[in-house]
Design brief:
alpha/beta; six-stranded mixed sheet; two-stranded antiparallel sheet; 11 helices; 12% strand
Length: 325
């Protein structure tokens, strides 16, 4: 799929495009506190007690660097769901809410990670029966002839029932104008949101400017997505924090000199790359490559024996290969 998109002015800009489509399913069973009873939701799904669920979700969200306003909005949704359950138990009206969302931000800012947490929360609060997340892009929705797109889109919606359909680079569906099959996908999704109301949640994601333009060009869409989250770029300090977290979870250590080298590289990349900079995704690629480079260095350096534990854990300056090859 081409990574070229049209901006408001009509000029084209190069955008990175993800090549791999992933389907994720939540197989982890709900964790229920031993001391508190389960609550039955109106859909029959079991809901975790408030404190147990909130503590688990908060721990998972706290593991994410930054995203403070996203975390606040997540708690608002959690609180709304919890109070709705209490109102129903008290015999009060508790109208159904619409939870379709728009995630706006550059690559590597945490959109997919937050979508997975949303799926888990909605499943455990009884809003979604399954809580799985299906991640797709334009190529998965748009067909090759009239009618093909509608069928492909309906099939994906069917797979997403009980969970979340996450469409990355969703603005690309409107890229070709009125005669493009992307419009057929949009129309099919809108109809599914009406016909399958409250049976699945649709999340549209993409670059902020393109998503704003996409929504503005489709007057009927904004009102269907009452929850819109902006994912800002990470600061340099946040990216270093992310890098340190990545190596720590793999039982590695970044030497201070390596951290300084990485920080200087990130400063240059953010200034030079602008829209092409992929935030945490860029950092992950660097860390994974540095681990490979460290392995090569250690094998060459200790050809006659095994390095000690600390040396096996240490990533040095020479392990950070930061060229663009």
């Amino acid at each position: 799929m081409s990574g070229r998109v049209m901006g408001r002015s009509g000029s084209s800009e190069e955008r990175p495009s993800r090549q791999i489509n992933v389907i994720l399913r939540s197989t982890e069973p709900p964790v229920v506190s031993q001391s508190l009873p389960e609550i039955e939701s109106t859909s029959g799904a079991k809901v975790m007690p408030q404190q147990s669920l909130f503590n688990e979700l908060q721990k998972e969200m706290d593991g994410l660097v930054g995203l403070d306003h996203i975390k606040e909005l997540m708690f608002e949704i959690f609180a709304l769901l919890q109070i709705a359950t209490m109102r129903s138990e008290a015999g009060l009206l508790s109208g159904a809410q619409v939870y379709h969302m728009v995630f706006k931000g550059n690559p590597g800012t945490g959109k997919t990670t937050v979508a997975r947490i949303v799926a888990k929360m909605f499943q455990r609060m009884g809003v979604l029966s399954k809580g799985h997340l299906i991640e797709v892009e334009r190529a998965d929705l748009v067909g090759e002839y009239i009618g093909h797109t509608a069928q492909k889109t309906r099939d994906l919606v069917k797979k997403a029932l009980g969970g979340i359909l996450f469409i990355d680079e969703a603005y690309s569906l409107a890229r070709g104008g009125e005669k493009d099959f992307g419009k057929e996908a949009i129309d099919t999704l809108v109809k599914a949101m009406e016909d399958q109301k409250n049976q699945f949640i649709l999340i549209l994601a993409g670059y902020s400017e393109e998503m704003d333009y996409f929504l503005a060009a489709n007057p009927g869409l904004p009102s269907r997505f009452p929850i819109q989250m902006d994912f800002p770029d990470y600061s340099i300090d946040q990216l270093i924090q992310i890098a340190e977290g990545m190596v720590k979870e793999r039982d590695y250590i970044l030497m201070p000199q390596a951290i300084l080298k990485l920080k200087q590289h990130l400063l240059r990349e953010k200034l030079e790359s602008e829209h092409l900079f992929s935030n945490a995704r860029h950092v992950r690629n660097i860390i994974e490559r540095s681990i490979r480079q460290q392995a090569v260095r250690l094998l060459n350096q200790y050809s006659g024996g095994s390095p000690g534990k600390l040396e096996l854990m240490t990533i040095r300056t020479e392990d950070l290969k930061l060229d663009k090859k």
